[in-house]
Amino acid sequence: MSVHSEIKKITTETLRKMKFDKEKITMLTAYDFTTAKMVDAGGVDSILIGDSAANVMAGHETTLPITLDQMIYHTQCVVRGVERALVVADLPFGTYQSNPEKALDSAVRMMKEGGAHAIKIEGGKEVEESIRKIVNAGIPVCGHLGLTPQSIYQFGTYKVRAKEDAEAEKLISDCKLLEELGCFAVVLEKIPAALAKKASESISIPTIGIGAGSDCDGQVLVYHDMVGMNQGFSPKFLRRYLDLYTEITGAVSQYVKDVKSSEFPNEKESY
């Protein structure tokens, strides 16, 4: 039997079962083939092509500038590197908020051209009709509540959301709405841990937290942050598993020295 035939594909149903079995779900971002291959080989359950590509891949201050075409390109690259993980792609700002027809067109393109297994949308009640239309077309949707980076200019800050009662109540009601609409999971970003626990217990679909405590059904981090490629970004919720910035700049510096001093290439490295 080949190795490939032993790899069990993760599906939206797998994630639901993991919640039921109280097995934690793991998710990381990836935006290119090589990274996706490594993240998938590491055993992560789901890979998110986040619109955070606007920040870590393109150097933008917010996630707003990235286009649907650019997100489709990143998704195509990731899908080619994945054998096991569920691939979820963000629909970027402006592709679903205003018009359910446009939302469906965007989602269809992401699935057909990008090859995504599912899409992610920010917001609750405000985007109800868009989510309904996409789910009714048979496309799996992951919700996203709490700090929704596409609304950053409305919030005016990246601080913790839903600390006040009214916003906390809306978040719980939006969680229930997303479940009713047929979403298979919901990302909860930067909200109090106690609220995330309550939200997770109030719905039967999985919650995936980022800065939302340990009682969510799973966790997601941006790959570049988790492996320490970004030095300037250190939110409280981030755990760095490597310091690649130091490792890579050190390796580049050594390469420069070796070339300048004619140490590289040596005899063994020449034909």
Overview of the structural elements:
- The chain has 271 residues and is of the alpha/beta class.
- It contains twelve helices and eight strands.
- It has helices spanning 3-6, 12-20, 33-41, 53-56, 68-80, 100-114, 128-136, 152-155, 165-181, 193-202, 223-226, 244-260, and strands at 25-29, 46-49, 86-90, 118-120, 141-146, 185-189, 207-210, 218-221.
- An eight-stranded parallel beta barrel has the order 1-2-3-4-5-6-7-8, surrounded by seven helices.
- The termini are far apart.
- The model is unreliable at 1-5 (pLDDT under 50).
What's the topology here?
Blueprint (H helix, E strand, L loop, with lengths): L2 H4 L5 H9 L4 E5 L3 H9 L4 E4 L3 H4 L11 H13 L5 E5 L9 H15 L3 E3 L7 H9 L4 E6 L5 H4 L9 H17 L3 E5 L3 H10 L4 E4 L7 E4 L1 H4 L17 H17 L11
Parallel strand pairs: 1-2, 1-8, 2-3, 3-4, 4-5, 5-6, 6-7, 7-8
Shape: globular
What's the mean pLDDT score? 95
Straight-line distance between termini: 40 Å
Biggest sheet, spatial arrangement of strands: 1-2-3-4-5-6-7-8
In terms of quaternary structure, what is this?
single chain
Secondary-structure-based class equals alpha/beta
Q: Helicity level, as a percent range?
A: 40-55%
Taken in chain order, the helices and strands follow as HHEHEHHEHEHEHHEHEEHH
Largest sheet: 8 strands, parallel, barrel
